[in-house]
Amino acid sequence: VHLVESGGGLVQPGGSLKLSCLASGFTLSNYNMRWYRQAPGKERERVADITSGGGSTNYADSVKGRFTISRDNAKKTVYLQMNSLKLEDTALYYCVAIGSSYRGQGTQVTVSS
Questions:
Q1: Closest CA to 3 of 97, 72, 73
Q2: CB 30 within 8 A of CB 52
Q3: Rounded to an integer, what distance in angstroms lies between the CA atom of residue 50 and that of residue 65?
Q4: What is the pLDDT of residues 50-81, one digit of tens each?
Q5: C-alpha span between 69 and 37 (Å, rounded)
Q6: How many CB atoms lie within 10 A of CB 24?
Q7: d(CA 82, CA 27)
Q8: pLDDT tier at 34 (50, 70, 90 boundaries)?
Q9: What is the DSSP string of the chain?
Q10: Quick one: pLDDT at residue 1?
Q11: Distances (CA, A) of 55 to 18, 35, 58
């Protein structure tokens, strides 16, 4: 079982990034999925959830209106589109299959001028 995140990087405030989470070894479409983030010295923060079929999403107040979670079960991938990035969005972002032990290693997002 693998979840592999990609798409992170260094971006200026106000910029955009799109993260991807590629699943293998299990049936992605059976699971609701979640993006978390964790900054150094801070607690893990739930960023966004999406139901197994993609019909419902939920966001942390801190990212609402700026981030969009989506999925393509045929491509076994979950996405996180991040717009209007702020300095405080800097963190390690990782995806999990809700209700399972499946999680990725994460991809680093750094917002800096």
A1: 97
A2: yes
A3: 15
A4: 999 999 999 999 999 999 999 999 999 999 99
A5: 14
A6: 10
A7: 26
A8: very high
A9: -EEEEE--EEE-TT--EEEEEEEESS-GGGS-EEEEEE-TTS--EEEEEE-TTSS-EEE-TTTTTTEEEEEEGGGTEEEEEE-S--GGG-EEEEEEETTSS-B---EEEEE--
A10: 82
A11: 20, 16, 11
Give dist(CA 77, CA 71) in Å, integer: 6
22 pLDDT higher than 90: yes
Cα torsion 17, 7, 79, 40: sign = negative
Mean pLDDT for the stretch of residues 98-109: 94
Burial class (CB in 10 A: 0-12, 13-18, 19+), 43: exposed
